[in-house]
Amino acid sequence: MSYTFFLLLLSLVHSTFSSLAPTDRAALQSIRDSLTDMPGSAFFSSWDFTVPDPCSSFSGLTCSSRGRVTGLTLGPNLSGSLSPSISILTHLTQLILYPGSVTGPLPPRFDSLPLLRVISLTRNRLTGPIPVSFSSLSNLHTLDLSYNQLSGSLPPFLTTLPRLKVLVLASNHFSNNLKPVSSPLFHLDLKMNQISGQLPPAFPTTLRYLSLSGNSMQGTINAMEPLTELIYIDLSMNQFTGAIPSSLFSPTISTMFLQRNNFTSIATSNATSLLPEGSIVDLSHNSISGELTPALVGAEALFLNNNRLTGDIPEEYVKSLINGTTKQLFLQHNYFTRFPWNSGLQLPDSVSLCLSYNCMETDPVVGLSTCPIEVAPLLSRPASQCSRFYNHSSTG
Ligand SMILES: *[C@@H]1O[C@H](CO)[C@@H](O)[C@H](O)[C@H]1NC(C)=O
Ligand SMILES: *[C@@H]1O[C@H](CO)[C@@H](O)[C@H](O)[C@H]1NC(C)=O
Ligand SMILES: *[C@@H]1O[C@H](CO)[C@@H](O)[C@H](O)[C@H]1NC(C)=O
Ligand SMILES: *[C@@H]1O[C@H](CO)[C@@H](O)[C@H](O)[C@H]1NC(C)=O
Ligand SMILES: *[C@@H]1O[C@H](CO)[C@@H](O)[C@H](O)[C@H]1NC(C)=O
C-alpha cells in the first residue's frame, strides 16, 4: 500500500468521526478530577485533555461515531470517588470500574443512562444504597457491585428489570428480604450479605447459578418449579429448615451446597438416582434424620456428615465407591448402624471415605476410613448414644 493511499485512507476514517461532544468532555474532566491513581498505577497517564480527540487516545474510553462516550472502563487501582457527572454521558452502554479503593456512594442519577447494558463496579469501597434511579435501567443485562460496602434494603426493583441476566451483589451489607424475581436471570449471586426472610416462591426457570450463602435466610423451601437449567446452587450458612425438596436435585446440577443450615430431611420421591455423575453435594451440618435414601448415589463427592441419619448405609453407595463414581463420601457424625462392606472388596486408592463417630456395631471401618485430620481420633460414638438405634424392631 502506497504511503499517499494510506494517508488518504487515514483522513477518510478520521473525517467520519466527529470530535468528542463538549458535554461529554466536561463530564470526563469531572470524572478525572474525582479519581486518582494509587501509587504504582498509571491509568490516567493517557488522559491528556489538551489533545483534539480523547476518544482515540484516552485509555478505557470508547465513543460513537457522533462523538458520544459509549463505554467507560476505569482502573484498576484507583482511589477517590465516582463523580455524579457520569450521568451526563447519556449514550453510555458500559460502565466498568476495576478493583481499587474508590469510596463514596454510587452516582445518584442513572435514569439519564437508559442505554446502559453493563455496570460492573466490583472490589472497591463503595458505600450507601443502590439509588432508586436504577429502576429505569430497562436495557441492563449485567449488574456486578460485588465486594464493596454497599448497604440498605435489597431493592425490589432490581430483580424485576426486564433484561437483567446477571446480578452479582456478593459481599456487601444488603439487608431485608429477597422479593419475587421476574427478571430473566441466569446468574444470581447475593452471598455474604445480611438478607433475611424466606426464599421467594419461584425463581426464573432460566437460572443456572444461584448463591445465597452466608445470609440470615430462614423457613422451609417449598417445592418449586424445577429449575431445569440449574448447574450451581449454594444456600449454605443460612437457617433454612424442613425438607430439601426433590425439585432442587435437578438432572443438570453439578454443585449443590446446602451445608450448615437446619434442614431436617431429604424429600426424594421414588427416583433412584437424582444426581448426575460428577456432581458435588454438601448437605453436612444440618439436622437431617431418618434413613439415607439411595437417590444421591450418583454424586462424585457427597458430604452428609454431622447430621442425624440412622440405619444401614444403602449398598448402592458401596458399589458407587468401588466402581469409581463416588470419590469422596463423608458420613461421619451420624447414627448409622452398618456399612455393608465385604472383606473381599477393595476401594480404589483415590477414594476418601469417612465413617467415624457412628453407631456401627461391627466395625469394618478401621482401615477403610480416611477421615479429615480433625475427625480421625473419634472412631465411634459412645454406646450410650447408640443403644436405641441397635434395636431394629424399634425406631426410637
Ligand atoms: C494493582 O495493585 C495490585 C496490588 O497492589 C498489584 O498487584 C497490581 O499489579 C496493580 N495493577 C496495576 C495495573 O497497576
Ligand atoms: C432446627 O429445627 C428444629 C426443628 O424445627 C428446632 O427445634 C431447632 O431449634 C432448630 N435449630 C436451630 C439451630 O435453629
Ligand atoms: C414416581 O411414582 C409416580 C406414581 O407411581 C410416577 O407417576 C412417577 O413418574 C414416578 N417418578 C419418578 C421420578 O420415577
Ligand atoms: C456405579 O454404581 C452405581 C451404584 O450401583 C450405579 O448407579 C452406577 O451406574 C455405576 N456406574 C458405573 C460406571 O458402573
Ligand atoms: C427392642 O424392641 C422391642 C420391641 O419393640 C422391645 O420389647 C425391647 O425392649 C427393645 N429393646 C431395647 C433395648 O430398646
What does this protein look like?
With 396 residues, the protein is α/β, with parallel strands linked by helices. The protein has a domain at 268-396. 11% of the residues lie in helices and 26% in strands. The longest helix is centred in the first third of the chain and has 13 residues, at 3-15. Bound molecules: 2-acetamido-2-deoxy-beta-D-glucopyranose (NAG) (5 copies). One 2-acetamido-2-deoxy-beta-D-glucopyranose (NAG) is lined by residues 40-41, 76-77. It is a single-pass type I membrane protein. Pfam families: LRR_1, LRR_8, LRRNT_2. It is found in: Membrane. Residues 22-64 form the Leucine-rich repeat-containing N-terminal plant-type domain.
Topology at a glance:
Elements: H1 3-15, H2 22-33, E1 35-37, H3 54-57, E2 61-63, E3 69-74, E4 78-81, E5 94-97, E6 101-104, E7 118-121, E8 125-128, E9 142-144, E10 149-153, E11 166-168, E12 173-177, E13 187-189, E14 194-197, E15 209-211, E16 216-220, E17 232-234, E18 239-244, E19 255-257, E20 262-266, E21 280-282, E22 289-291, E23 301-303, E24 308-312, H4 315-322, E25 328-330, E26 335-338, E27 352-354, H5 383-390
Parallel strand pairs: 3-5, 4-6, 5-7, 6-8, 7-9, 8-10, 9-11, 10-12, 11-13, 12-14, 13-15, 14-16, 15-17, 16-18, 17-19, 18-20, 19-21, 21-23, 22-24, 23-25, 24-26, 25-27
Antiparallel strand pairs: 1-4, 2-3
The site of one 2-acetamido-2-deoxy-beta-D-glucopyranose has 4 residues, from loops.
Subcellular location: Membrane
Family: Belongs to the RLP family.
Domain Leucine-rich repeat-containing N-terminal plant-type: 22-64
